[in-house]
């Protein structure tokens, strides 16, 4: 038995691929109601299920609803990243780019993921040099060698 909602929801997501896809939305809703989570968090978890199942339009609506309802950190940051990724998948790369570029307050542990999605959105938006630059500058701090060279080359890429 789980002692916190976070443990319960983590277990839900760890097992999501083995569950019946048709029941996932009901299961996450039931789980959220059992733990009496705020409406914003329920909307986020439901949107995540829609995203997981490939129902992107429903996911976008849910992420926006969660954010508008005051979803708290760290889930607020995750919702913004997931919303941007979903917008990109729906062919709205420009909106994804705007959203990801507005995330100055992103916690350090989520920043590489946000930058990876930004690189993908930039590529989809016809900005391959900027996409590669973003990816290289995100990767560079993690390189044990050649860090400075990669940073220099990234800055030299054609726009």
Structure commentary:
The chain has 159 residues and is mainly α. The protein has 2 domains: 5-126, Serine Threonine Protein Phosphatase 5, Tetratricopeptide repeat (Alpha Horseshoe); 128-159, no CATH class. Helix content is 70%, strand content 0%. The chain is built from 9 helices and no strands. It has helices at 5-14, 21-34, 39-52, 56-68, 75-89, 93-101, 111-124, 128-139, 147-156. Helix 6 (93-101) runs antiparallel to helix 7 and helix 7 runs antiparallel to helix 8 (128-139). The relative contact order is 0.08.
What labels would you give this structure?
single chain; 159 residues; mainly alpha; Serine Threonine Protein Phosphatase 5, Tetratricopeptide repeat; 2 domains; 9 helices; 0% strand; elongated
Low-confidence stretches: none
Shape, principal axes of CA atoms: elongated
Number of domains: 2
CATH class of the largest domain: Mainly Alpha
The CATH topology of the largest domain corresponds to Serine Threonine Protein Phosphatase 5, Tetratricopeptide repeat
Order of helices and strands: HHHHHHHHH
Largest sheet data = none
Report the count of strand segments: 0
Rounded mean pLDDT score? 96
Estimated share of beta-strand residues: under 5%
- By DSSP (H or I, 4+ residues per run), the number of helices equals 9
Per CATH, the superfamily of the largest domain is Tetratricopeptide repeat domain
Cα-atom Rg, whole angstroms? 18 Å
CATH architecture of the largest domain: Alpha Horseshoe
Query: What's the end-to-end separation, in Å?
Result: 53 Å
Helix content: 55-70%
How does the helix and strand content classify structurally? Answer: mainly alpha
